[in-house]
Amino acid sequence: MMNNLATKMTTTKAPTMTEAKITARNVQVFYGDKHALKDVDIDIRPRSVTAFIGPSGCGKSTFLRCINRMNDTIASCRVEGSILIDAENIYDTKVDPVQLRAKVGMVFQKPNPFPKSIYENVAYGPRIHGLARNKAELDEIVATALQKAGLWNEVKDRLDAAGTGLSGGQQQRLCIARAVAVSPEVILMDEPCSALDPIATAKVEELIHELRENFTIVIVTHSMQQAARVSQRTAMFHLGNLVEENDTDKMFTNPDDQRTQDYIMGRFG
Ligand SMILES: Nc1ncnc2c1ncn2[C@@H]1O[C@H](COP(=O)(O)OP(=O)(O)OP(=O)(O)O)[C@@H](O)[C@H]1O
């Protein structure tokens, strides 16, 4: 027994701080006088999917937007505390939010392609960030991003067609291709499937599964089933507090916090 335990202890490496891709400490968010997020501490692991769950208004999207400083665009919003990505404080005055958002891409609830061609939707980011030296390189980046987003075969013969002419599910994968095209390290997804039908949802979930090999993904979802299907870690928010963060399997079978238990059993929210 002791031997088994000793073997387990030497072979199972405990997660350490250095393994975190994103480290948040004492994060507080205010909208004017409203204290929307209170004292959030979390370590988010690289190349894995972390799901944020919790009842409406608990602060999931607010915290997600802290990770690429999208809250900077809301005048009444104030963020305190620190968020490190690869040990760099993204709230440091030296950090350029535009560069940060290339490193930390975002996919929104409603697919929002630009009113331009499929090609231009994907090429826009790499072009403004100077990632291609010529048209051939840009073509390559666009094709690769569309392949990674699982959309290439459906659109390769009509790259000049309008992005807005695609189905909702295809538009969302186009937005994922747009995020992937600038080679981000983190992809934030705010309820990316809420406007999609079950088939399109399944495709996006499959895609999340594949993208996890190369990207750190954080997803806000109202669907417990989706969190269970796509994530390895789950964080539960309630009334502006992060009440529990755990392995997804444990979270949905034997959570530590009564509020998580009540939420996943549908007792509130
Ligand atoms: N732009 C804003 N201005 C003022 N208050 C806001 C703003 N955005 C969010 N809030 C408030 O902050 C709190 C957290 O909102 P947030 O959208 O982060 O919650 P959520 O958990 O993502 O909710 P939902 O699941 O409904 O999207 C809520 O009380 C909300 O009303």
Automatic annotation (TrEMBL):
Pfam families: ABC_tran (PF00005). InterPro entries: AAA+_ATPase, ABC_transporter-like_ATP-bd, ABC_transporter-like_CS, P-loop_NTPase, PstB-like. CDD domains: ABC_PstB_phosphate_transporter (cd03260). Gene3D superfamilies: P-loop containing nucleotide triphosphate hydrolases (3.40.50.300). GO terms for molecular function: ATP binding. Residues 22-264 form the ABC transporter domain. It comes from the Bacteria. Keywords: ATP-binding, Nucleotide-binding, Phosphate transport, Transport. Belongs to the ABC transporter superfamily. This is Phosphate ABC transporter ATP-binding protein. It comes from Rhizobium rosettiformans.
